[in-house]
Amino acid sequence: MAAGLALDEAAARAVIAAADTSGIGIVVARQAEVGRRLLWVSDAVCSMTGRTREELLAMSPQDLVIPEERGPLQEVAAEVISGRCPRQRLVVSAARVDGSLLPVEFSYTSVESAAGALVVGFLVDLSERRHAESALRSVDDRFRGVIEAAPEAVWIAGQRGLVYANRAALDLFGVGDFESVRGVDPRRFVDPADLTLFEERSRALLRPRGRVPPFELRAQRADGAEIELEVSSIAIDYEGEVAILSFGRDVKERRALESKVQQSERLAALGLLAGGMANRIDDPLSRVLLELDLLRGDLSRLRDADSARRARSRVREAIAATERVAAAVRSARLVARTGDGAPAPVDVAGVLGDVLALVGEELRSRSRFRATVDEAPLLLARAGQVERLLLDLLAYGARSVPSDGSGALALRVARLAEDVVIELEVDIPAGRDRRPGGSAVDAELGLLVCRGLARELGGDLELDRLTESRWLVVVRLPAVLDPDARDPIASTSSAPPSSVRHARLFVIDDDPSVLEAVRLVLERDHAVETFTSAADALPRLLRGEADIVLCDLVMPGLSGMELHAVLRERAPEVRRRMVFMTGLAFGGPTAEFLASVDNLRIEKPFDLESLRRLVQRALRSPGAAGPDQSVPSSPAPASQASRAAGPAKES
C-alpha cells in the first residue's frame, strides 16, 4: 500500500511538473469548500496572477475573477458542493496583482483521495491565443478590405452557392448588393452555351491537386446583357468547407482596347509609309517644278505669238497639275507628322484646310458635314499637334454617325477672348445609339485621346449634351495674342530683288537632277557650284568660299546634320550660312535637329519663286532667322491660302 501510495505521489509530482513547464496552472480545493478557499496551487498559477502561494491560499477562488464574471463560477461551485460535478470549461478574466486582466480557460474535475473528495482545476493562459486571434482578425479584415477595393471581380462559390462577391464582381454582373445573390448557384450567370465548360472546370478544380488554367467564358448580367470573361479559379477552404475562389475580368473591353492599339499601330505604319513616299517624290517633283518655271520663261521669248501662247498654256496646265501633286505630297506628309520640333505660331484655319484636304470628302460622303472658320486664330504649338487633334476629333465625330448620310457633323473654329475654340456638333439620327463616339469603349478612348492632345496644347476638352440626339464637343486652347507672330517672313519676303547682291552659292544634294535644276534657276543671278557629296564640299567650306550653302538634310555619307556639326566646331560663321532643303522630317533625330538649330530651311517640293525668295532672304540677313522661320514653298499650302481668303470661311 505504501509502495502504491509512493507511486501515486511520484506520478502526481510528474503531472504537476509537466503542467508547470507547459504554463498550465493547477488548483486543488476540498469539494465542500470549493467556493471558499483553495487547498493548494501550482507555481504556474503564481506566475499567471503575480501573487505568492501564501497570498493565493488565503483568498477565495472568486476573488481571483473580476466581479462581472463571478456569477458562472459561483454556479459551478454550488453544483460541485451538491455532489454534481459535470465536466465543463469556463473562460473567465482573472485579475492580476498589478490590476491587469488575464483571460484564462478554467476546466475542472473531481477526484477521491485519502484526504476526501477533492476538486482539481486547470487554468490555461489565453492571452497569447487572444493576441493571435486578434492579429488574425486584423489580417482578415485588411485582406477583405483589399479584396473589396480591388478593381478585379472576385467571388467565392461553395456548396451553398455564392458566399462572397466584392464590389467589382457585383458591378460586373449588374447586381446592386450581395444579399440579393447570396446562396445563388453561380451557373445562373453562365451562358447556356458555355455551361458544360463551366461545370467541367469546376469538377476539375475540386479533384485532389486540381488546377485549371485561365479560361474564357460567356456570361450574362442580371439585366440580360452578354459579357465575355476571362476567369481564373482555385479551390480553397472557406469557413470550414471546400469552395472555389474566382477572379474575372471583362475581356470585351480589353479586346476593344487591343483593337484600338492595333489600329493606332497601323496608322503609325501608314504615317511612316506616307512620309517615306513623300520624301521619294520630293526631289523629282522639285526638279519638274523648276524646269517648268524655266520653260515658261524661255517661251516668253518666242517670236511666233500664237505658238508661244499655246505653249505657255500647256506649261500652265502642266504646272497646275504638278502643283496638285505637290499638294498631295504635303497632305501625305501631314499624316506622318508628330509633335516633335519647337513650338511656333500655327494657323488653325490653315491646318484645318490641310486636314480637310485629306478627310473632307470622306466626311461629306457619310454625313451632312460642314466646317466654318469665324476667324483665323493662331496657336503656339509643335508641328503636328494641331493636325492630330483635328484629325482625331473628326474621327470621333465620324464614328458617332452612321455611314448612310443620315447624321450631321458641324465643325466650327473661332476666337473667343484669349482662347481658340474648336466646336464639333454631332447630330445622331433616331434608331442609333445616342451616345457619340461609337461603342462605349471607343467613345471613352476617343475622348481620352482628344482631351490628352488638347491638354498638351495647354487647353482642355468638354462634352455637353444639347438635346436627346445632339452633342457638342468643345475644345478651348490658348491663342497667340501677338498679331505680328502671324507671318514671321512677311517683312523680309517682300523686299525687292534689286537689294540682293551677287553671291557665291554652294548647293549640296545627293540627287543630280535637283542640283541641275537649282543651278539653272540661280546661276542667272549668282555664282553657283553643286556637290553630290557634303564631304567633297567640306574643304572649301572650311576655307570660307561660300556665301550661302543650300544643303539637303538627309544624304548618304556625311549628312547635312553632320556637316552642320563639323562647321559649328571648325567654321562657325559658315555654319550660320547654311540653309536646309528638307521634306520636313516627321520624327526622330532629324526633327530634334531642326528644332535645335536657327538656320533657314525650305520644304520640298519647292518651285522657282520660293527658291529665289529664300536666297534673297538668306543674303539679306544670313544666320539671323529663328527655327520657326521656315520659308514655305509655292504654291502656298492651305495654311497660307486660308489667310488670303479672309475670315468667315466655310468648307
Provide a brief overview of the structure:
It is built from 20 helices and 23 strands.
Q: If you had to describe this structure to a student in words, what would you say it looks like?
A:
The structure is a single chain. The protein has 651 residues and is an alpha+beta fold. The chain is built from 20 helices and 23 strands. A six-stranded mixed sheet has the order 16-17-15-14-12-23. Strands 2-1-5-4-3 form a five-stranded antiparallel sheet, with helices on both faces. Helix 14 links the parallel strand 18 and strand 19 (527-531). Helix 8 (251-299) packs antiparallel against helix 9 (305-336) and helix 8 (251-299) crosses helix 14. The chain is elongated and about 155 Å long. The protein starts with a helix and ends with a strand. The relative contact order is 0.07. Residues 1-7, 485-500 and 623-651 have low confidence and may be disordered.
User: Looking at the structure, what is the overall shape?
Assistant: elongated
Evaluate the radius of gyration. 45 Å
Number of helices in the DSSP assignment: 20
Can you give the helix content as a percent range? 40-55%
Strand order of the largest sheet: 16-17-15-14-12-23
Secondary structural class: alpha+beta
Average the pLDDT over all residues and give the rounded result.
Answer: 76
What about the largest sheet?
A: 6 strands, mixed
| Span of the ends, CA to CA | 123 Å
- The number of distinct β-strands equals 23
Strand content: 15-25%
Q: List the uncertain runs.
A: 1-7, 485-500, 623-651
